[in-house]
Amino acid sequence: MENNLLLRIISKLLIPFIALFAFYVQFHGDFGPGGGFQAGVILAAAIILYSLIFGIKKSQTLITIRFLKLSMCFGLILYCITGFFGIFSGSNFLDYNTLNSNHIFAQELGIFIVELGVGICVFSVMLLIFYLFVSRGKK
Amino acid sequence: MISILLLNYWVAMILIALGIFIVISKSNLIKKIVGLGIFQTAVYLLYISPGKIIGGTPPILAASFSTYSNPLPHVLILTAIVVGVATSALGLSIIIRIKEDFGTIEEDEIENLLSKEKKIVCLFLLVKFLH
Amino acid sequence: MSFFISQIPALIVSVPLFCAPLCTISNHKFFSWLIALLATFFCFVCSIFLFFNIHENMVISYAMGQWLAPWGIEFRIDKLNSFFILIVSFFALYACFFGLRSLKNDIEQSKISLFWTSYLLCITGLLGVLITGDAFNIFVFLEISSLATYIIIGLGRDKKALYASFQYLILGTMGATFIVIAIGLLYVTTGTLNLFDLSFRVKNIFDNPALITAIAFLFVGISLKAAIFPLHTWLPNAYSYSPNVTTIFLSATATKVAIYLFFRFGYDIFGPSDIISTLSIGKIIIFLSLLAILFGSIAAYKQSNIKKMFAYSSVAQIGFITLGIGLMNSSALTGSISYMFAHALTKGTIFVLIATLIFSLKDIDIKSISGLVKTQPLIAFLFLISLLSLIGFPGTVGFISKWYLILGALQYKNILVIVIVAISSLLTIAYVWKISKLIFLSEPIKQNFNIPITMKFSCILGSVLIITFGIFPGFLINNANEISSILMSR
Asked: Quick check: A32 contacting B, CB < 8 Å?
């Protein structure tokens, strides 16, 4: 679809805004609708739009399958490390109050980090599923 | 007002019945996944409908409001939606592998292939036994 | 050290969850197995600490994130929980240890690290279901374990494994969604999701139609996951075509976790006198269990695939366990709980033996184990011990549990139940005789085959445990008695 002028230009205009919206949803998850899962899916949708129009090879040179497998694991490990931080500080698992002395800031920081972990993991999984489904047909 | 709220539950129950019927009656494997999706969506409706408090605002703290809708069902449904997405993704990838290995995604054709294999194996053993 | 022990409820679920992505990152056949082995060993050690720290009616309550129950999610461990956690973590370790050699023949080499990742996620889910005290958390962990189970079943070499995994996916997701509907209706009628709080709030509102609907959906959903008679159709295919490590692990743990949910919701939260007798759920469970025993044993006799034969035998044994739940007196409950342990041990050992033979012989037809007593007498002897335990021969662990179940059936005073319980042993003997005739009285077909030492060690360990718990049943029966008295006193 790369030869279609309309698709190429509109997608190049829109994809940055879709990605920006994904980051907005990620960071405002505790105050409005949103959160890690929704943000991960929207960001993955932006990259999938790019690969639909410009081809899988181009998008795989930017975000390789190996990178996605590593970032998927990294998201889950980030979540678990936040939980274990609570245990190492002497309190319970996933206790956000140990992250900082200010009670309110600690809660916000804790929610931010776990949503980041969830968002990274969901983004990698969605994009990985897309890449693996599409590359299956070529064999 | 009350009867309009009950409409949610009627629709949810009808969709649950429709979803289960599609899973049971259709033989195409992808249609089964679609039926499962309809079934799960009806369950989300069943959770969220009681969460709305009459006269309540969306559950975001603000100084001028005192009655909020219940935020807990929304959180539960987010989790359930993620589980549903993961199940559909897994089901569809298994269907792709089934198509590659069996050549078909119709349930009755797959059953035919499996029972034909059984018959061939039984015939083979019978012939071996008779020798 | 005591701080570590107080954090065990969170660690026992989060350590396998943390180690699962490490297996994927390592991408190496041996190191991913090693990570899985260390994680399951850690879980087993933690479960031993938990089990021996709980005395009498004690309850350990662990608040996640320091949010106290009933607003926060708590992990709640009492005697019922800790017993099941011990069983599940032991069999996770057992199957994982066996899997080093066995997995190489069963799945493609490139997928071994992904198999161990899914295995660890499955253990996370199962231990989470057992340990949590929040109703919706049960659904979340149940679905984590179910999704991981569909993966580890579908990785088998036979292409029928894919179709079996898909069938289980459809039925399992429907079962879990029924459980979700029930939890939603429970939340709407009582206003809480915490199981302990729920047990107080349901006592006053018992004739609420929404509550009765919730109980109905809950029991159907749990029966689908536990493979109770008419809803068992996924089980034979899922057990026979999956890799051998999966069969060993699932036969010992997956259905037991669903039956734990029966205990928790039926006896602990709703109270046996309310549900099981007033709503006649007990009679329905007894009826379905009797059908399961008859159907499972008859179907097992007619199979020619040895793994499918023992899968149908599992359906019959699960019917036995749920019979104890439906009979609702303390000896039947003791029998049911101890039979759960006995069945996990017996079926685990039988499937380990079958996996050993399949690894050495590369064949699953029933004829290939002929004459085993002449070629491999040790394995034949161990097979004999586990088959005797399946029948319920005195001296093995199966005997004492069946004894308590028969006592419970006698207390129930219904002639049909007593007759079918007595016939069940005869039916079991029928298909066990079929196997034993092949092992002991036939001529050997395949002659020289070697069995690796680690596999021999696993088989010997399983059989030794069967005999040990058969000759010294005190540990098992005391704990089962304590649990059943706690449950019956609600």
From this structure: yes
- Please report residues of C whose CB lies closer than 8 A to that of A90: 3
**Which of C387, C240, C381 has its CA nearest to residue C299?**
C240
> In this complex, do A92 and C14 lie within 8 Å of one another by their Cβ atoms?
no
Please tell me if residue A138 touches chain B, with a CB cutoff of 8 Å: no
User: Inter-chain contact A76–C62, Cβ cutoff 8 Å?
Assistant: no
Q: Does A112 touch chain B (CB under 8 A)?
A: no
Residue C418 CB neighbours (<10 A): 14
The confidence band for B129, taking pLDDT boundaries of 50, 70 and 90, is low
Distance CA C94, CA C297 (A): 27
Record: contact B43-C177, CB cut-off 8 A: yes
> Looking at the 3D structure of chain C, how many domains does it have?
1
pTM of the model: 0.94
Tokens, residue C131: 């340990």
* CA distances in angstroms from A25 to A29, A34, A35, C202, listed in the order given: 6, 5, 6, 39
Domain ranges, residue B47: 2-105
Sequence-separated (6 or more) residues with CB below 8 Å from residue C262: C219, C222, C226, C322, C325
Q: Which pLDDT score, from 0 to 100, does residue B39 have?
A: 96
Whether the ipTM is more than 0.95: the answer is no
Contacts of C132 in chain B (CB under 8 A): none
Q: List, for residues C407-439, the tens digit of each pLDDT value.
A: 888 888 888 888 888 888 888 898 888 888 888
φ/ψ of C205, rounded to 5, equals: -115, 35
| Residue ranges of chain C whose pLDDT lies below 70 | 273-277, 363-367, 446-448
Residues in C closer than 8 angstroms to A87, CB to CB, are: 7, 10-11
Task: Tell whether B74 is covered by a domain.
Answer: yes
Q: What secondary structure does DSSP assign to C232-293, as a single string? A: -THHHHHHHHS-HHHHHHHHHHHHHHHHHHHIIIIIIIS-HIIIIIIT-HHHHHHHHHHHHH
- CA distances (Å), C11 to each of A92, A99, C45, C231, C358, in order? 10, 19, 11, 34, 36
* C472: region left, alpha or beta (phi > 0 left; psi from -120 to 50 alpha): beta
Select from A107, A129, A130 the residue whose CB has the most chain B CBs within 10 Å, as the one to mutate to test that interface: A129
Give the domain CATH number at B34: 1.10.287.3510
Count: domains in chain B = 1
- Residue C161 and residue C241 in contact, taking contact as beta carbons nearer than 8 Å: yes
**Measured between CB atoms, does B82 come within 8 Å of chain A?**
yes
Q: Where are the domains of chain A?
A: 5-136
Q: Is C424 a domain residue?
A: yes
Residue with tokens 């044993």: C297
The candidate with the shortest Cα–Cα distance to C198, out of C185, C213, C207, C209, is C185
Domain span at C297: 280-490
Is residue B117 included in any domain, yes or no? no
DSSP C378-413: HHHHHHHHHHHHHHT-BTBHHHHHHHHHHHHHHHHT
Mean pLDDT of A114-137: 92
Q: Do B102 and C143 touch (CB under 8 A)?
A: no
The string of pLDDT tens digits covering residues A7-61 is 999 999 999 999 999 999 999 887 778 889 999 999 999 999 999 999 889 899 9
Among B40, B72, B98, the residue with its CB nearest the CB of C177 is: B40
**pLDDT recorded at residue C53:** 86
In a domain, C370, yes or no: yes
Q: Inter-chain contact C24–A69, Cβ cutoff 8 Å?
A: yes
Contact C314, C295 (CB under 8 A): no
In a domain, residue B112? The reply is no
DSSP C132: B
